[in-house]
Each structure stands twice: as structure tokens, then as C-alpha cells.
Amino acid sequence: SQRPYVIDEMISAKSIAARIEALARDIQEEFAGTNKLVVVGLLRGSFVFIADLVRELDLPVEVDFLEASSYGDGMESSREVRILKDLRGQIEGRDVLVVEDIVDTGHTLSHVSQFLLSRLPARLRTIALLDKPARREVDFKADWIGFEIPDEFVVGYGIDFAQRNRNLPFIGKVRFTDV
Ligand code: PRP
Ligand code: MN
Ligand code: MG
What we know:
The chain is α/β, with parallel strands linked by helices and about 180 residues long. It has a domain at about 15-25 and about 35-70 and about 80-150: Rossmann fold (3-Layer(aba) Sandwich), CATH 3.40.50.2020. Helix content is about 20%, strand content about 30%. Manganese (II) ion (MN) binds near residues 42, 45 and 101.
């Protein structure tokens, strides 16, 4: 972006870590006894969250990735979701956990869920670190949510603004300084 901005911390790295520990316990309970959990990260935004989440899971897991069409460098949802990179592995008859950084309009995760359900997994569950219910355009709710947040433009912990700031260890909100 050409516009100048600063980033204000919204959710600290410590709060994120504590929340992930609690989420991991819930997920372990849900999938207790499974020997075939596939954890699917949606590229690119989920890469930090999935890395931290799987390391808290005391379950046998496989990790796979899928990429859906992106907002690109813009701030608006395209609404029409396409699969740009498919899974490497099979999920039929397996337990699947789809990991997302944020649910905004809901188009991405609802489309990806339908797409994966058509392959007849044994169970499909979804988790998103952040949920912005105020922005929802389709009726979708992840099975687990880390934090519900207001309608702010957030970055960090995997989430970008024009491909920048994914490497921040916390969730911050963008504040434009030219207004
Ligand atoms: C962002 C975010 C979610 C999606 C949420 O991804 O990471 O995947 O948008 O928006 P929605 O609920 O309105 O569909 P983006 O398309 O920017 O790609 P990225 O993960 O590579 O940044
Ligand atoms: Mn994404
Ligand atoms: Mg993005």
C-alpha cells in the first residue's frame, strides 16, 4: 500500500499462545482415538497458526495445504472462490481439520468446506484463529474460533496487508496515518 500506516497491537503473542493451548485441548477431545487426522492449512494466511496449533496436538497428524483464490493485494473479497492448489493427499474416510487464520465474509472457508466434503471425509471440522462476524456474507461458523474481533483491518501472525506483516508475532490493527 502507498498509504502510510502504523500497526497497533490488538492480541499479544502470549494471549494467542494461551488460546491455542485451550483450543488444542478441545480438538484433542473431539478427535481422541483417531489415527488418521489430516490437518489442512489454507495458504497463505494460516501458516503461522497451523505451525503453532499442530505442535500443541498430542495426536497422530498429517499436515497438508490447500490454496484458494485470494484477495490478492486488495482489501476486498472477490466472493468467487477458486481452488488454486489442491491437497497432496487423499481425505476420503479420514478425519480432517481445516485451519484458517480469519473468517471475514465467510466465502473462503465455506467454499473450501463444501469442496472437501464432496470427497467424503469421515469428519470435517474447521478452526479459525479470528472471526469477524460483522462482515459475514454467507451463513458460516467455524467449529472453533480463537478470538471474535470487531471489523478492523488486522495483520500479523500470518495475516497480510498487501503481502506484508505476516511475520509479526502478534495480531495488530492497521491504522492509516494520512487521515
Ligand atoms: C484471507 C484470509 C482468509 C480469507 C478470509 O486470505 O487469510 O483466507 O481472506 O476472507 P473471507 O472470509 O472473506 O473469504 P487471502 O485471500 O487474503 O489470501 P492469503 O491467505 O494468502 O493472504
Ligand atoms: Mn487466507
Ligand atoms: Mg491475504
